[in-house]
Amino acid sequence: MKQKIQFFPITSFSVVMGLTGLSIAFGKFYHMQWLPKVFYDVSIFAALSIFVLLVIMYGLKFAFYPDEVITDFKHRIRVNFFSAISISLLLLSIAFYTYYPLLSITFWWMGTVLHTIFLFKTISFWVQHNFEIHHFNPAWFIPVVGNILIPIVGVEYAPQIISYFYFSVGFFFWIILFTIFLYRAVFHAQLPEKFIPTFFILLAPPAVGFISYMRLAQSWDGFSIFMLLITYFFIMLLAVMFRSFYKIKFFMSWWAFTFPLAATTIATIVAFQITNEVIFKYIAFLMLGVSMVAIAVVAWFTAINIKKGEVCIKED
Hints:
The longest helix has 30 residues, at 278-307. The protein is mostly helical. The protein has one domain: Voltage-dependent anion channel (Glycosyltransferase, Alpha/alpha barrel), CATH 1.50.10. The chain contains 13 helices and no strands.
C-alpha cells in the first residue's frame, strides 16, 4: 500500500476527465429526451466519487511523500497533468450545472482558481527550462483545454470579460502548440508508444472551443463552424490512423482516448440544437457509442492492470 501511495500517478485524474465528459454527454442526451435520466444520474455521481478518491490518494502522497509530488511537478511531461485536477473540477461544474447549481458554482470557482495557478506555473516551467523537441507531446495541450472550458458555465458565474480572457489565452496557445506538435510529428522521431494515445487530445481544443464560443457569442458563424469542422477533420484523421492505436501496450495514457471523444459528442449535440440538422443527431449517437465503448475498454484494462499492480509504479 505504501508503494501505491508513493508512486500514485498524477495522470490518474485523466480518468475523471473521461468519465465526467461522458456524464455531460449523457446529460445532454437526457435533456434532448434521447436517453433516460438514469444514465446521467449514475455517471455523474460515479465521476464525483472517483474524483474524491483520487484527491484523497494524491493528498496522501503529498502528505507522506512530498518529494515525489515535487518530482512530478518538476517532470517535463507530468507537470502538464496537474491541470487535469483543475479540469476535473471544471468538468464537474459543467456536469452539475443543471443538476445541482450550488455545487456547480463551487466547483467552478475552485477549478478556475486552481487552473489559473497551474496555468502560470506550467507556462513558467516551460519558459524557465531547456526543452528539446522530443520532449513535446500532446499532453502539453491539457492546460490549454482548461482555459477553454472555463467560459462554458463561467458566463453564468462571473463577468463575461473573464470568460473571454480565458478563451483568448486558450485559443492563442492552442494555435502555437499545434504548430509545434505538427513540426514534432512530421520532422522528428515518432512519439514513444506510451504517448501514442495522446494524439486524441488534438480533438479537445477545437471541440471544447466550439462549445465555449457558442456559450460566449451564441453565434453560428464562420468561426464556430471552423472549430466544429476542424474537430471532425481530426476525427477522420485518427480513424485513418487506427492501426497506430489498436496494438499498443496498456498505459494510463489510454485515458487520453476518452475525454476528447466525449467532447466531440457534446459539440455535435450543441450543433444539432442550433441548426436542427438531422446529420448532427446521427453523428452524436455514433460518437456517444464510440465514447462508451472506448471508456468501457479503457476502464476494463485499467482494472486489470490495477489488479496486477502495474499502475502505481515508479516512472521514468
